[in-house]
Amino acid sequence: MTPSLESRPRLVPGCRLNEKTQPSRVLLMPERALRLSGPSLEIVERCDGQHTVRQIVSELQALYSKAEPQKVEQDILGYLERLQEQRALDFE
Amino acid sequence: MAIPIPTPLALVAELTHRCPLHCVYCSNPLELTPRGRELPADVWARVLREAADLGVLQVDFTGGEPLARPDFTELVRAARGAGLYASLITSGLPLDEKRLEEIVGAGIDHIQLSFQGAREEVAAEISGTRTHAQKLRVAGWVKRHRVALTLNFVIHRQNLDQLEDMLALTEEIGPGRVEFAHVQYYGWAFQNLKRLLPTREQLDRSLEIIKQAEARLRGRIRVEYVVPDYYAKYPKACMGGWGRKVLLIKPDGDVLPCHAANVLPGMKFENVNVQPLRRIWEESDAFRKFRGEDWMPEPCRSCDRRTQDFGGCRCQAFLLAKDAAAADPVCSLSPQRKVVDAILAELNAPGPPVREPGDEWLYRPNPA
User: Fold this and answer.
1) In a domain, A61, yes or no
2) Which of A82, B124, B162, B168 is positioned for an S-S bond with B118, CB 3.0–4.6 A?
3) Owning domain of residue A64
4) Residues of A with CB below 8 A from B85's CB?
5) What does the alpha-carbon distance between residue B130 and residue B120 come to, in Å, rounded to a whole number?
6) Cβ A87–B112 below 8 Å, yes or no?
7) Beta carbons of B178 and B222 less than 8 angstroms apart
8) In a domain, A28, yes or no
9) Do B145 and A13 count as a contact with CB atoms less than 8 A apart?
10) What residues of chain A lie within 8 A of the CB of B225, using their CB?
11) How confident is the model over B63-107, as pLDDT tens digits?
12) What would the pLDDT profile of B295-335 be if each residue is shown by its tens digit?
């Protein structure tokens, strides 16, 4: 399911980032851990139920201004969709 | 050649071998640790910190029944304090709403609730206790909190035909994740193998049902399925490779590479009361024994799959081929595959199953 730009992704209960103080950032969930860095970390940090998908896209486009904006949007939508299928987040 | 030492990701903490259930496939060893030898909470708290320092991200609190320990909440707090992701693997039996609130308040991230079947009758025969109604209550309570819920159905010949009912129950409860885990044949399950291993027909049908369920539930419930490896062509990557990703600590503090390793002859396991966890992980004979590839015989040594399955399971090699260093006998490339095929042939023979005198369940008892 491709997320709507107006929805607000939020990590599901039992899925969380490890502490900022730890040397590498990891998304923790039952029986799994995804190492995050660069854009994947920037995206997941914004999946707080506050940011809309549209806001996440525009903030990432600003952060990665050298990349093609259309490509950034597609990558984010695909990534959020995968995380939703893995039951790491929901669109509220 | 020196083997680079990997970083462990998960610690399986067997807090106790005490349990209100007596499941015929329990993953605990045949020789259970008595209550008097269980590590106290302050030692566990230190070990959890040592595990986090070693790189461990997640701790799975299991048993026995971890809630048989009155100090369980304290251990959850210690795990979160150490920066770990904390899972509770439970039968749900000792739980009430108040205790659940305490555990959630202490920071539990994930609760895995085990089911022995979709209905009371089979579940009661398997676990030797009536528990099903309480599990349904617990699932309802957990759903009211912001923690992950996994339902875990252990499946085998006696309940595999209820798979659709288990799925219906899962959809009714609505967890984030469900595991259908075929019994793994070690310890108690190996003793009861002839009555637990499914037939090929049952297995094929269950795979079809799971495939449909995965499609239907995609995006709602994550469905995981653990195959019975006797029917597989290649072995499982047991524990993600020996001494590679996981370590297990027994109730008395012995540190093992897997649940069943104590069946292997000549293995000596170090204890957290005597040595730091890092030294045990990095240097102990038990962890070095089958780490990497140097120990591998043929056909593993020259096999392309050795970096995927790491030669399979050492305990299975010992149980079926009487040699812990042999290729896992479930592998179609193993010279010992005939042992597994003979078991399957007997099981899948036409006609009613042969019942021998004394052919009864061996229930797991409680430790002293």
Assistant:
1) yes
2) B162
3) 9-91
4) 16, 18, 28, 33
5) 7
6) no
7) yes
8) yes
9) yes
10) none
11) 999 999 999 999 999 999 999 999 999 999 999 999 999 999 999
12) 999 999 999 999 999 999 999 999 999 999 999 999 999 99
Residue B312, Ramachandran bin (φ over 0: left; ψ between -120 and 50: alpha; else beta)? left
| Separation of alpha carbons B181 and B190, rounded Å | 16
User: How many domains does chain A contain in total?
Assistant: 1
| Tokens encoding A38 | 């660069």
pTM of the full predicted structure?
0.94
Are B146 and A13 spatial neighbours (Cβ–Cβ below 8 Å)?
yes
Least CB–CB distance from B58: residue in A22, A33, A84 = A33
- Under 8 Å CB-to-CB from B120, ≥6 apart: which residues? B130, B132, B133
CATH code, A32: 1.10.10.1150
Which segments of chain B have a pLDDT < 70?
1-3, 352-359
Q: Report which residue type is found at B322.
A: K
Compare CB distances from B83 to A22, A30, A84 and report the shortest one's residue. Answer: A22
* B57 CB within 8 Å of a chain A CB: yes
Strands A32-36 and A25-29: antiparallel
Beta-carbon contacts of B73 under 8 Å, excluding residues fewer than 6 positions away, are: B99, B102, B103, B105, B106
| Helix, strand, coil percent content, chain A, rounded in steps of 5 | 40, 20, 40
pLDDT at B317: 95
Q: Does A2 fall in a domain?
A: no
Is beta strand B177-182 parallel, antiparallel or unpaired with respect to B148-155? Answer: parallel
Q: What is the pLDDT, as a whole number, of residue B250? A: 97
**Token pair for B4:** 């680079």
User: In chain B, what's the furthest Cα-to-Cα distance?
Assistant: 58
Q: Do B218 and A33 touch (CB under 8 A)?
A: no
Task: Check if the beta carbon of residue A17 is closer than 8 Å to that of residue A44.
Answer: yes
> What does the pLDDT look like over A50-83, one tens digit per residue?
999 999 999 999 999 999 999 999 999 999 999 9
The reply to whether A24 falls in a domain is yes
